[in-house]
Design a protein that fits this description.
This protein is an alpha/beta fold. The protein has helices spanning about 30-45, 55, 70-75, 95-105, 110-115, 115-120, 145-160, 190-195, 205-215, 230-240, 255-265, 285-290, 290-310, 315-320, 365-385, 385-390, 415-430, and strands at about 20-25, 85-90, 125, 165-170, 220, 245-250, 270-280, 325-330, 340-345, 355-360, 400-405. Helix content is about 40%, strand content about 15%. α7 packs across α8 and α7 crosses α9 (about 205-215). InterPro entries: Myo-inos-1-P_Synthase (IPR002587), Myo-inos-1-P_Synthase_GAPDH (IPR013021), NAD(P)-bd_dom_sf (IPR036291).
Length: about 450
């Protein structure tokens, strides 16, 4: 069944979002429980889905003078929030209500209104190895003779859930694993499958989940900076099974601000000599990142943004010698309410120095939850769209990531506003609408 575009033009066979969409979340911590509780609160009319582009954003069609800007959710065939079903895995015994209460992101009154719904979601035992996340010690962990056995158990979990819903998306909302680099085991599906049997140490739990999802033809989103789907074997599996993948590490607080401010400096040809960023947070993410090996994974994700936006090789007078430093400090009293400080040393006309200081007192999971929602809805749309499902990497979703994934040899686009234009033009394209270039000369003919 084809979906009809606004202008009456038939699109290329996008399947409708009928039936139930199952969201399987790896790691029922602060982000996951805030997402699940938030979706249920919105469904019951208790709150608004603020921060969600799919739920509150509009998209302009045609000329500015046409006055045609429908809601995105009314323009493209996205799954309805009423059709979402949640399940997932965790290394602790808590149901989702208990996990949400422990995370202390949402207040007691908010949780009490939806407590029975949250208590009914009991996570399945998870694939976990403390070698990859040293600050956690799981109590509900799958056992197997090798990593291939563990992957088969996850595949069985996905297949059993698929029997109860119409479509599935898998979302990693687990902790940041230690820093890994690609090895020979990641170069092909065959090598990866042999590596799992051999218990290759380069294969982390997140990779096992990604393999299982993609093997089942299910889209996969990685909310942490782990080396997970950004591997040749996963791209091959994604294309082979029409299971869309995209970037990694939700772009929430400090990096979100960098992708807003850095493009502004470059647009005005203002130089940057230094950018110092430090964070304090006290949730489980902060505890995990207190381990130097996990922090290195996050650091690599956060450091790359400025180089790609500022392009020092094109603007050596402005950005060649920039000093960029990132720090994350575990501070338990702050809980999920992260604070990010940025000191930016810039220079302008004739080289005269100036400074900008940003203090972002944000709520990490409050910013991440709507991103996670948008990603699973857009990945489900991509799976149902022939023009997108078979290409593997969904670069048009770069808007949501600290580390967007691209085709090999192609540098990622980090400018938030270019990313948003790419996202909306992709939606226009698959719906048979004209792309918007913002040229605007036709108004002056």
């Amino acid at each position: 069944m084809a979906v009809e575009a606004q202008g009456g033009q038939k699109t290329a066979g996008i399947k409708p979002a009928t039936g139930k969409l199952g969201i399987m979340v790896v790691g029922m911590g602060a982000v996951a429980t805030t997402l699940i509780a938030g979706v249920e609160a919105v469904r019951r009319g208790l709150a608004k889905p603020i921060g969600s582009l799919t739920q509150m954003g509009t998209i302009r069609l045609g000329k500015r003078t046409d006055g045609n800007s429908p809601l995105i959710k009314d323009f493209v065939p996205l799954a309805s929030l009423d059709d979402i079903v949640f399940t997932g895995w965790d290394i602790f015994d808590d149901n989702v209500y208990e996990a949400a209460a422990h995370a202390k992101v949402l207040d007691h009154d908010h949780l009490q209104q939806i407590r029975p719904f949250l208590e009914a979601i009991q996570p399945m035992p998870a694939v976990f190895d403390q070698h990859y996340v040293k600050r956690l010690n799981g109590t509900r962990v799958k056992k197997g003779k090798h990593k291939c056995d563990l992957a088969q158990q996850v595949i069985a979990d996905i297949q059993n859930f698929q029997k109860t819903v119409d479509r599935v998306v898998v979302l990693w909302a687990g902790s940041t694993e230690i820093y890994l680099e690609p090895t020979e085991v990641h170069q092909s599906i065959a090598a990866f499958e042999k590596g799992m049997v051999d218990n290759d140490p380069s294969i982390a739990p997140s990779q096992i989940y990604a393999y299982a999802a993609l093997k089942c033809g299910v889209p996969f989103a990685n909310g942490a900076p782990n080396l997970t789907v950004d591997l040749p074997c996963m791209v091959e599996l994604s294309r082979q099974n029409s299971a869309p993948i995209t970037g990694k590490d939700f772009k929430t607080g400090q990096t979100f601000m960098k992708t807003v401010l850095a493009p502004a400096f470059k647009a005005r040809m203002l130089g940057v000599s230094g950018w110092y960023s430090t964070n304090i947070l006290g949730n489980r993410d902060g505890e995990v990142l207190d381990d130097p090996e996990s922090f290195k994974t996050k650091e690599e994700s956060k450091l790359g943004v400025l180089d790609y936006i500022l392009q020092p090789e094109l603007y050596p007078d402005l950005y060649k010698d920039i000093y960029h430093k990132v720090r994350i400090n575990y501070y338990p009293p702050r809980g999920d309410n992260k604070e990010g400080w940025d000191n930016i040393d810039i220079f302008g006309w004739l080289g005269y120095p100036m400074q900008i200081k940003v203090d972002f007192l944000c709520r990490d999971s409050i910013l991440a939850a709507p991103i996670a929602l948008d990603l699973v809805l857009f990945l489900d749309l991509a799976k149902r769209t022939p023009q997108l499902a078979n290409i593997g990497i969904q670069e048009w979703l770069s808007f949501y990531w600290k580390s967007p994934q691209t085709a090999p040899g192609l540098y990622p686009e980090h400018d938030l506003f270019i990313q948003l234009m790419k996202l909306k033009n992709t939606l226009r394209h698959i719906m048979g609408e004209d792309l918007i270039t913002h040229l605007g000369l036709e108004y002056y003919d």
